[in-house]
Design goal:
Blueprint: H1 2-10, E1 18-23, E2 27-30, H2 36-39, H3 42-47, E3 51-54, E4 62-64, E5 67-75, H4 84-91, H5 93-101, E6 106-108, E7 131-133, E8 136-137, E9 140-145, E10 149-157, H6 162-165, H7 190-205, H8 216-230, H9 233-236
Helix pairs in contact: 1-8, 5-7
Amino acid sequence: MAVDEALLQNFKKDDLPIFRLYRWEPSISLGRFSNICESVDLHNLHKQNLSYVRRMTGGGILIHGGDLSYSLILPRESLKNVGVKESYRYLCRFLIEFYKKLGLNANFASELNLNSSKSNICMAAHEPYDIIIDGKKMGANAQRYTSKTLFQHGSIPMSINNEVFKDVFLEESGLKHAAALDKTGQKTADKEFVLLLREAFVQSFEANLIDDSMQKSEQSSADALLMHKYSQERWNINAKHNEI
């Protein structure tokens, strides 16, 4: 999460858009305004050796460990005529294409006329542009806007370990009804998933992908954010931090 924010902080007007792919250790991430004490049993969280971190984006509490995540950063003007909700539809279309490449019937919840619902836990909630496969929610996506930049990240669940997370939540988690690629019979290796996701991204946005690594300024920002924000309970528990 420190890397995501560092990339956003250092993004300049004329920079090429950034598409980042990454994995997690078993953990949970909290939305910017999530109340962890209302929804999570911290004792059982520690008992399962699960870590936790608060995101800079909104949304609910999300589990990680069996997922592939992405981040996307681009100039806000590139979607200047698109509203916030419609921007999800526009940006998430590469995910729809990815699932189609796997032979899955993926649709946005709004296309299926599913009712929206709220929850502190991400997989127990439904938004219009959640992705639905076989009637189940597949992953989640969240955004953050600055004056000139649009940031979006999301999670593609390849597997969900219900046993590890079953005693972590104090309310309905939605995990039993959540979709994951292994539940659809997918046997593709991680590297093949990544290649298919890159291919779907290129085709959806008619883009070229240039492999790159973090710049020194970005790495320096990420190190500072990790030390002073994302490793601190002041942020992860209480949602408070000092500007870095």
